[in-house]
Amino acid sequence: MSALPPAEAHALEEGLAFAPRYDAQGLIVCVTVEAATRDVLMVAYMNELALAKTLETGIAHYWSRSRQSLWRKGDTSGQVQKVVSLEVDCDQDALLMTVEPGGDGKSCHTGRKSCFYRRVEGGATPRLVFRD
Amino acid sequence: MSALPPAEAHALEEGLAFAPRYDAQGLIVCVTVEAATRDVLMVAYMNELALAKTLETGIAHYWSRSRQSLWRKGDTSGQVQKVVSLEVDCDQDALLMTVEPGGDGKSCHTGRKSCFYRRVEGGATPRLVFRD
């Protein structure tokens, strides 16, 4: 990401046009938050197709970087995510999606509710500590 | 990101070793949340140096992709972010940092508290709507 020309930055930041900025792989990062608790559930990526499907259906779609395929969250796990709101950041290279998770409420593929289940502690010599 | 071998995935996901996985540019994405409100303030990136500085000092440091430089958030704006907690996701390619913002509480360079100040609405023909 190089710095944007001021006019372009202003249009992105203050305009009403949705102009998501994909990276060199055609992806935009998406932070997914649970509506009821505001817990951050996961960080994943969308491509143009996944974003279009999400907007059209109101159900979260991502792009799986490991499988290189469109990924309708919950197709195999039952963890379908109903979109409550979608927001874009100032320079339109990140999304914040608020969802109501379906199924058993465990969004992480490890069987936990959130992918963020370990804290980094220890300062200069960090180690991980599992959250309660 | 290709799929990880099962043993490597297990170590990343269930282990106590902090092994952040940087992308091809040497960066890891960081979601920054305000401790008091749980509002998502911003999404930014860290490189190994920024992460080390953050862990050593307890103050948020990022890597500015536009300026290609270490960025101690608040050095020019007063918006220093005191780290309350840092978490890593299952496969250790994303960070979730909870902070107490300093200064006037406006984390976004546009003068707003959060970078996420516009909703995407309209389904298949999306437009942006400013939040209250």
TrEMBL record, chains A, B:
Cellular component annotations (GO), alphabetically ordered: cytoplasm
Free-text comment on the cofactor: Binds 1 zinc ion per subunit.
Localization annotation: Cytoplasm
Primary role: Catalyzes the hydrolysis of the adenine ring of phosphoribosyl-AMP.
Enzyme class: hydrolase
Amino acids binding Mg(2+): D89, D91, D93
Protein name, as recorded: Phosphoribosyl-AMP cyclohydrolase
GO BP annotations, alphabetical order: L-histidine biosynthetic process
EC number in record: 3.5.4.19
Alphabetic keyword roster: Amino-acid biosynthesis, Cytoplasm, Histidine biosynthesis, Hydrolase, Magnesium, Metal-binding, Zinc
SUPFAM superfamilies: HisI-like (SSF141734)
Binding site for Zn(2+): C90, C108, C115
Subunit structure: Homodimer.
Alphabetized InterPro entries for the sequence: PRA-CH (IPR026660), PRib_AMP_CycHydrolase_dom (IPR002496), PRib_AMP_CycHydrolase_sf (IPR038019)
Primary location class: cytoplasm
Pathway field: Amino-acid biosynthesis; L-histidine biosynthesis; L-histidine from 5-phospho-alpha-D-ribose 1-diphosphate: step 3/9; Amino-acid biosynthesis; L-histidine biosynthesis; L-histidine from 5-phospho-alpha-D-ribose 1-diphosphate: step 2/9
Organism: Methylosinus sporium
Cofactors required: Zn(2+); Mg(2+)
NCBIfam families (alphabetical): PRK00051.1
